[in-house]
Amino acid sequence: MPDTMIKICGLKTPEAVDAAVDAGATHIGLVHFEPSPRHVSLNDAAKLRRRVPDSVKVVLLLVNMQPAPTGEALDAVQPDVVQFHGNETPEWLALVKEKTRYEVWKAWGLMNAQSLENVLAYESKVDRVLYDAPAKKLPGGNGVPLDWSLLREYHHRIAWGLAGGLTPENVVDAIRTTHAPLVDASSGLESAPGVKDIDRITAFCRAVREA
Ligand SMILES: O=C(O)c1ccccc1N[C@@H]1O[C@H](COP(=O)(O)O)[C@@H](O)[C@H]1O
């Protein structure tokens, strides 16, 4: 089985970005969503983006943004991937995929077996689905794991990844249960909301490699 890809999300400082890259992250995520404690301005996101070597992909996370500001954000940051983490429609994401050079990911709050079927509306319209726990106060970044058993024997028709409450302590179990090709962690690697803990980033990447 190929190595599990690792996305470390919600990075706000050069130190945290460097730590994720050094620890072996394949993707780093920048959140541009003002209500989030992990929000970065487009200017700061562009600066952080420039620190990242070509071997690591940069994911810009947006939530329910209108088309014009979406274009402005993508032009400013020039990520490799755009992760849509709101109620964006399949039609809108298909248009972004068709008209831009960016990889398009859709976060999906996974509630039950039916919602695994419902996400197929995005098949061929996005490059990857990221399963997260259903939205709470924020649409994501809530540190809540989803029910991994839903994914245990599932035959996936869309490339996918696992998010939601992943930590250095539970990620081995998550990978062994779901066989996720990509794992994504954010709030589980923090000492306070929005403050990444470098040791937890390193421990998370080490745990994924040992799974
Ligand atoms: O991190 C946030 O604040 C956030 C805000 C709005 C949408 C998504 C957000 N985070 C993403 O949610 C998943 C799961 O995060 P967690 O590990 O449970 O904290 C992940 O992709 C985050 O980047």
From TrEMBL:
User: What's its top-level EC category?
Assistant: isomerase
Q: Which keywords appear in this protein's UniProt record, sorted alphabetically?
A: Amino-acid biosynthesis, Aromatic amino acid biosynthesis, Isomerase, Tryptophan biosynthesis
Q: What is this protein called?
A: N-(5'-phosphoribosyl)anthranilate isomerase
As for family, the record states: Belongs to the TrpF family.
Q: Pathway it acts in?
A: Amino-acid biosynthesis; L-tryptophan biosynthesis; L-tryptophan from chorismate: step 3/5
Q: What gene does the UniProt entry assign to this protein?
A: trpF
Q: Which GO terms describe its molecular function?
A: phosphoribosylanthranilate isomerase activity
InterPro entries per UniProt: Aldolase_TIM, PRAI_dom, RibuloseP-bd_barrel, TrpF_fam
> Gene3D superfamilies in the record, alphabetically?
Aldolase class I
| Domain N-(5'phosphoribosyl) anthranilate isomerase (PRAI) span(s) in chain numbering | 6-205
Catalytic function, reaction form? N-(5-phospho-beta-D-ribosyl)anthranilate = 1-(2-carboxyphenylamino)-1-deoxy-D-ribulose 5-phosphate
Superkingdom, natural source: Bacteria
The record lists the organism as Tsuneonella flava
EC numbers for this chain: 5.3.1.24
